[in-house]
């Protein structure tokens, strides 16, 4: 029970952007392979939206929710739907008879607003909302799957829709360079960055993906250069859901025998969805 609570806490911290880069990467890798853990993430998303709309988040949590959680179009749509649903329910319940003591929900573990709604003893209201929720679940499931992962029909393998982006060193706006502009296909759930190497001087490399304001989004170590018929290159896979509209920088570090990173070069690109 204690480990489950820590797991739920970790998922919440991830959704609010409070995890370290290493912890974030470990959690994302588990999301790609563990169906039950992915369902835990969806529950936590629902709870955060409920708490935000109910004014139950602290001021720092509310700020993190707005700046980090709502960066994807799917989550903004989820918030818009939840807010509209609350208004509809409030109006419907205002016209209904007051709830008796037996109607009032008792304490329940991790029950969201939607879950509590369907435990009500107003069948007409519940059935009226069922069609709306069915549509939302269908759209939300499609968005979540296309932005995050696609599951193999025969098991837990991930059917990745990979979009390849080739980057060359440099292109820094500060020195007058132009960022490479990419438009991600809606079906892509993995962006594979091909990083052309100026020279292959290290056995392994570290890649760090950052936003334009130098916030680290994704890190991967122990990558090896691959021969591509031309210059050697590093291939680096990133969940497409992490790349919203904006500018990004990829730092490439060579790892010494002791594992210490030494800066090699950097790459810049701009996402236009």
Helix/strand layout:
Blueprint: H1 2-15, H2 21-31, H3 35-53, H4 59-67, H5 73-94, H6 113-117, H7 123-148, E1 162-167, E2 180-182, E3 190-196, E4 204-211, E5 216-223, E6 233-239, E7 246-255, E8 261-271
Parallel strand pairs: 1-3, 2-8
Antiparallel strand pairs: 3-6, 4-5, 4-7, 7-8
Give a written overview of the molecule.
It is a single chain. This protein is α/β, with parallel strands linked by helices. 39% of the residues lie in helices and 22% in strands. It is elongated and about 65 Å long. The two termini are 42 Å apart.
Could you name the key traits of this structure?
alpha/beta; five-stranded mixed β-sheet; 8 strands; 273 residues; three-stranded mixed β-sheet; Immunoglobulin-like; 22% strand; 39% helix
């Amino acid at each position: 029970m204690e480990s489950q609570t820590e797991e739920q806490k970790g998922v919440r911290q991830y959704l609010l952007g409070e995890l370290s880069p290493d912890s974030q990467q470990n959690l994302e890798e588990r999301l790609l392979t563990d169906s039950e853990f992915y369902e835990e993430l969806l529950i936590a998303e629902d709870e955060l939206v409920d708490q935000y709309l109910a004014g139950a988040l602290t001021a720092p949590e509310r700020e993190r929710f707005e700046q980090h959680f709502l960066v994807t179009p799917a989550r903004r749509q989820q918030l818009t739907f939840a807010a509209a649903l609350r208004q509809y329910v409030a109006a419907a319940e205002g016209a209904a008879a007051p709830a008796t003591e037996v109607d009032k929900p008792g304490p329940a573990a991790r029950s969201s607003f939607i879950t509590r709604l369907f435990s009500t003893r107003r069948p007409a209201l519940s059935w009226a909302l069922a069609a709306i929720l069915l549509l939302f679940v269908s759209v939300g499931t499609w968005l979540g799957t296309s932005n995050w992962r696609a599951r193999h029909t025969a098991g837990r393998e991930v059917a990745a829709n990979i979009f390849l982006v080739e980057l060359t060193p440099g292109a820094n706006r500060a020195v007058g360079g132009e960022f490479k502009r990419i438009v991600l296909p809606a079906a892509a759930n993995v962006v594979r960055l091909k990083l052309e190497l100026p020279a292959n001087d290290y056995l392994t490399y570290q890649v760090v993906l950052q936003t334009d304001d130098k916030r680290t989004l994704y890190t991967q170590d122990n990558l090896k250069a691959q021969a591509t018929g031309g210059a050697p290159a590093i291939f680096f896979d990133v969940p497409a859901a992490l790349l919203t509209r904006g500018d990004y920088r990829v730092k490439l570090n060579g790892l010494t025998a002791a594992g210490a990173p030494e800066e090699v070069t950097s790459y810049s690109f701009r996402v236009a969805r």
